[in-house]
Write a structure and sequence with these properties.
Keywords: Isomerase, Magnesium, Metal-binding, Phosphoprotein
CATH superfamily of the largest domain: Alpha-D-Glucose-1,6-Bisphosphate, subunit A, domain 3
Strand content: 15-25%
Helix content: 25-40%
Protein name: Phosphoglucomutase
Number of helices: 15
Oligomer: single chain
Organism: Sulfuracidifex tepidarius
Number of strands: 21
Structural class: alpha/beta
Cofactor: Mg(2+)
Radius of gyration: 22 Å
CATH class of the largest domain: Alpha Beta
Pfam families: PGM_PMM_I, PGM_PMM_II, PGM_PMM_III, PGM_PMM_IV
Distance between the termini: 35 Å
């Protein structure tokens, strides 16, 4: 039996790995999975091929008897919130999130707006590979694709309902929003304006070629954005990935703050706001040791999961807690929705700043200082990933605590690292953090060489 779904949906290079033929067959499998007369909403980000794949999937869904509602362009969290609050049986989003511009993808949502669980993905794969598709009689194919126009307004109101709007408005914050020429520019600036901010936008026009920077916010790709934030004297910079479910922040000193650092502050704040929720957070093994070091001061337990928002979201929903997050800037706030949400993250950060009357830079100064080195090695045919994992375990067995939930993570007293095969690209990711910058760089170099890079 084949496999279609990766860490987060089905993705591939446009017209090479992700083709119209694949999308058509996948759309029929998704429609069969949801069933005849189900109501499914579909939307997309600004990537190349987005309209092509959306039309193909719409036709496939209609052919299986599904009622299709098109929301068009939208940030992934806005579309997810729309599925949940507007009463749909499920959703489909054409997006490849943070992947390079030549990629696109298809993700499937439950009626809660969350990416379907791994077991449900397997059901769709079984339908796909066994060619067990529903087919509607011509007499039932009498409805066109219908438009869904309520998503943006519903989403903005939803985000604002979870923060103290008036308290934030009194601060008149200056906020820079870099939406990477994609759909983050549709909702996040509106949320910021409703919060009384003076909003500056960068890379705000939709452009499927992503001419300004890569869709993934990294230290390299948003370096120029941080320089602009300094010039503007922004109280907060917000940088999105291609579908705006992530937010990497730039503080009031112009320093880029990685996602597990911001998530540590937001988890603390979520705990303060929701004392009746279980005092725990869920995060992937790719997050820093500083998470436990900081949150334990407030009685918050950290539970580690596999990498991938699907696993974190469903674990959080089942076991309950104040937050779930990934180190890449994806933060989940359960009172709003069990998915990563960039605009919600921004609103919570502004509320924390306003409530504690501190600048974003001083808030980040509360956190333990680690130096991060993040790199990757291209996978080739001669790289045996499982063998590499085992060799790393053996080499570092006496160095500290070892986790093998997803890849290999080693945590020592003054450093930690993770070596893991990506679920969305043909690469091995290497993350290293240490309290000494040269040590972090040295360990990263050793690991890259060990894995087979140069």
């Amino acid at each position: 039996m084949g496999k279609l779904f990766g860490t987060d949906g089905v993705r591939g290079i446009i017209n090479k790995e992700l083709t119209v033929d694949l999308a058509l067959k996948l759309g029929k499998a998704i429609g069969t999975y949801f069933g005849k007369n189900s109501n499914v909403m579909i939307g997309r980000d600004a990537r190349a091929g987005g309209d092509m794949f959306m039309r193909v999937v719409e036709g496939a869904l209609l052919s299986t008897g599904v009622n299709v509602y098109e929301a068009g362009y939208g940030a992934t969290p806005a579309l997810q919130y729309g599925v949940k609050t507007l009463g749909y049986d499920g959703g489909v989003i054409v997006t490849a999130s943070h992947n390079p511009p030549e990629y696109n993808g298809i993700k499937v949502l439950s009626n809660q707006g969350i990416e379907i669980e791994r077991e449900e993905e397997k059901k769709i794969e079984d339908i796909y590979f066994e060619d067990r598709f529903n087919s509607s009689d011509w007499t039932s194919l009498k409805y066109d694709v219908r438009k869904e126009t309520r998503v943006l307004d519903t989403y903005v109101k939803g985000v604002l309902s979870h923060v103290d709007v008036e308290k934030i408005r009194k601060k008149n914050y200056r906020v820079l929003i870099d939406s990477a020429n994609s759909v983050g520019g549709l909702a996040t600036p509106i949320v910021a304006r409703e919060l009384g901010c003076r909003v500056f936008t960068l890379n705000g026009n939709l452009d499927p070629l992503f001419p300004a920077r890569y869709p993934e916010p990294t230290f390299e790709s948003i370096h120029d954005t941080a320089e602009v934030a300094k010039v503007l004297k922004a109280d907060l910079g917000v940088t999105h990935d291609g579908d705006a479910d992530r937010a990497i922040f730039i503080d009031s000193q112009g320093t880029i703050q990685w996602g597990d650092r911001s998530a540590s502050l937001l988890s603390y704040w979520a705990h303060v706001k929701n004392p009746n929720l279980p005092p725990r957070v869920f995060t992937a093994v790719s997050s820093s040791s500083l998470v436990e070091e900081f949150l334990s001061k407030f009685g918050l337990e950290v539970r580690w999961t596999k990498v991938g928002s699907v696993d974190i979201a469903h674990t959080l929903m089942k076991e309950k807690g104040v937050a779930g997050f990934e180190e890449n800037g994806g933060f989940m706030y359960p009172p709003h929705q069990y998915v990563r949400d960039g605009a919600m993250s921004m609103a919570l950060m502004l509320e924390l700043m306003a409530s504690e009357n501190e600048s974003s830079a001083s808030l980040f100064d509360r956190l333990p200082k680690y130096y991060l080195v993040k790199t990757k090695v291209r996978l080739t045919d001669n790289i045996d990933v499982e063998k590499i994992y085992k060799e790393i375990e053996d080499k570092y067995t006496n160095s500290g605590k070892i986790l093998t939930i997803d890849g290999v993570k080693v945590t020592a007293s003054d450093y930690w690292f993770l070596v893991r095969k990506s679920g969305t690209e043909p690469i091995i990711r290497v993350l290293v953090e240490a309290k000494d910058q040269s040590k972090a760089s040295k360990i990263a170099e050793e690991l890259v060489s060990f894995v087979g890079g140069s």
